[in-house]
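Quick note —
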Amino acid sequence: MTDTPLLEPTEAYALWAPHYPACAHNPVMQAEERAMLTLMPAGLAGYRVLDAGCGSGRYMLHVLRRGATRVIGVDLSPEMLDRASAELDARQPGAKVEIELLQGNLEALPLPDAWADLTICGLVIGHLESLEQSLAELRRVTRPGGRVLCSDVHPIGHALGWQRDFKAGGERYAVRHTQHLYSHWHAACAAQGLRIEQVLEPKLDPADIPADAHFDRLALEVPVALVFQLRREP
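Predicted structure written out below.
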């Protein structure tokens, strides 16, 4: 059996972007998104929202549906930003909100201090080695008392050998992923002045799994994502 080529995130998403939808498109993402939306405020009127690592814009679309006034998406991949721009243009014609897309690194976000009322970072931090540095930036751009919603692939998946893989040009690839344990999150949040308010560990919904899917059956018995609601201390 040939090993799946392991790519750095910038290379992987350049290949993946043309076919990457602005929605949760696999059972793990669907489980993760249900948990994130449970923690997200139902009404965001008047909020300034940052989507750090916005990808194709799926969470930008969610916050716009909930009434956010100003939304900024930041991503390292220009190809994914192009994808997000196309999705936002197609689904938000004439919307009376301010929307901006910026290229930037999660470890050095191109925003001023305390800009966001709500900061979202969905399934991104696992692409970065330094959890503490990433959380420090998310804290910096969030106003005191503001909320940060973060998710990552559950570390148990990494321990079981699961990969974040995709197909492009008829070939299968995997994206490099760094395992961040709950203990690492707890220590990093404490160091950065981020209070952990809620932690969700969603499992797969069997109804989301296609009948012909080939996957590790153990995935039905363990959590597949780690989802945090954090609060920036005043």
